[in-house]
Design brief:
N-terminal domain of TfIIb; 3-stranded mixed sheet; Peroxiredoxin; 37% strand; alpha+beta; elongated; 2 domains; GMP Synthetase, Chain A, domain 3; KH_dom-like_a/b; OsmC/Ohr_fam; OsmC/Ohrsf; 3-stranded antiparallel sheet
């Protein structure tokens, strides 16, 4: 896997992935940025959310769970001194579907956190990463 980040101007950067996708990252105005995109540390948090959601949905599909929606909400705390690493990250899943098994969802979240999600495991080497979930029935 490769990636490329090119400085554009100020604090704006263009990130390009080896799969051919590009996105703009930027800093806040108080750091000379124009707020054109997410901050690099936000990208790390988003990457964790995407990685673990991918795992959980794949595991639940294999378990024949009728998932209609899945949202991952992430909350992170950072050190107040440099390097301002993540110290705590909480991952909250909101899984919607018909007659979902609480046991199967719990197992899917656990497997992602402890075995499959490389982002969660890697960030967990530095920060305390916790996970929980809630189940919802579809509306209507």
């Amino acid at each position: 896997m490769k990636a490329r980040v090119k400085w554009v101007e100020g604090t704006a950067m263009l990130g390009e992935s080896s799969s051919g996708h590009a996105l703009v990252m930027d800093g806040p105005p108080e750091a000379g940025g124009r707020n054109l995109g997410p901050r690099p540390m936000e990208m790390l948090l988003l990457g964790l959310g995407g990685c673990t959601q991918f795992d959980v949905l794949l595991i639940l599909r294999k378990a024949r769970q009728a998932v209609t929606d899945c949202v991952v909400e992430l909350t992170a705390e950072r050190s107040t001194s440099d390097p301002k690493v993540f110290t705590r990250i909480h991952v909250h899943f909101i899984v919607t579907g018909r007659a979902l098994s609480e046991t199967r969802v719990a197992r899917a979240v656990e497997l992602s956190a402890t075995k499959y999600c490389s982002a969660s495991i890697m960030l967990g080497a530095m920060a305390t990463v916790t996970h929980d979930f809630e189940l919802r029935e579809p509306e209507g």
